[in-house]
Specification:
It contains 9 helices and 13 strands. By secondary structure, it is α+β, with helices and mostly antiparallel strands.
Length: 298
């Protein structure tokens, strides 16, 4: 299988600084961590690829520092030795939990050393893509989606947020959550001294023809899933165009927050671009695509 990554990270229209951060490693075997994405499809290596999005919080209290610390700590945790051992033992969820724990510790240590950063924090979502599975870990309301043109858009993560709790209780709809005045309140994140930053983790079967998208709430907090799905459907053949059009969608919705989007497109080794396949083929395959969930500490 081959993979192509694309990303956009923008300050938006209203914020004075960009507190979103991302980092990708297209080939964990080579350990080349990038903030720019390769322009072509490359073979998906035996250790897979990793993408990370972090949405810093704290404004003047260094939200951008928190998100940067998180991505750096995750990179440092995913050493070649740890990654190789983890893949060999089929225990990726455990290492992803360590990534989040190490990132949380790095943020808290900085606040202890530098009082000017007191109150900073960040969300995080990590997607580790192997030949047949996407392993996703997250804290907060940054999201990971799976898209396939034959099966539509599916949110793999579930927000750790106050409005999500309201949705779960049936007090508001998902559409109402987009405009709720407390939509920015998260219930779990990195840098909180009063709570452990325990991520949720899911493992989702994937295959050629799938798109994976990580994003901050600068996109998902202002644009509905149906609007996001329409953009992906129209630009499915070009993952970079998907990113650009989703960024435009978020800006058209007001650009009220920083906007970070990272996408991964998967194709067969014999292909050069994504090719639409029959619904019958995907429907049959999807009988076996139920995710395995690993919530909390597991």
């Amino acid at each position: 299988m081959k993979i192509r990554l694309s990303a956009v990270n923008d300050i938006g229209r209203e914020r004075e600084n960009n507190e979103d951060a991302y980092i990708v490693c297209p080939d964990m075997n080579r350990q080349e961590w990038l903030q720019a994405t390769p322009p072509t499809y490359i073979p998906l290596g035996p250790l897979g690829a990793v993408a990370v999005v972090a949405d810093g919080m704290g404004g003047a209290n260094a939200g951008e520092v928190a998100s940067s610390l998180a991505t750096t700590a995750i990179q440092e945790t995913l050493t070649a030795e740890r990654v190789s051992q983890c893949v060999a033992s089929d225990d990726i969820p455990l290492l992803l939990r360590k990534c989040v724990s190490d990132a949380d510790k790095a943020i808290k240590l900085r606040m202890m050393d530098d009082p000017s950063t007191t109150g900073m924090g960040t969300t995080v979502v990590i997607c580790w893509i192997t030949a047949d599975t996407a392993h996703v870990a997250w804290c907060g309301d940054s999201r990971c989606y799976l898209y396939n043109p034959s099966n539509g858009l599916r949110q793999l993560t579930k927000d750790h947020s106050y409005v999500q709790q309201l949705v779960d209780r049936g007090e508001i709809t998902e559409q109402e959550a987009l405009t709720h005045p407390d939509s920015n309140l998260i219930t779990r994140g990195l840098g909180d001294f009063d709570a452990m930053s325990v991520p949720d983790v899911v493992s989702q079967p994937i295959g050629a023809g799938d798109l994976l998208m990580l994003c901050s709430d600068g996109l998902s907090g202002y644009c509905s899933d149906s609007d996001i799905e329409q953009v992906l459907q129209s630009n499915y053949h070009d993952v970079a165009a998907c990113c650009d059009q989703l960024f435009s969608l978020a800006m058209q919705a007001g650009g009220h927050d920083n906007i970070c989007i990272v996408m991964a497109s998967l194709i067969d080794d014999q292909q050069e671009i994504p090719i639409l396949q029959s619904k019958a083929k995907f429907s049959l395959r999807n009988l076996f695509r139920l995710p395995t969930s690993h919530t909390g500490q597991g």
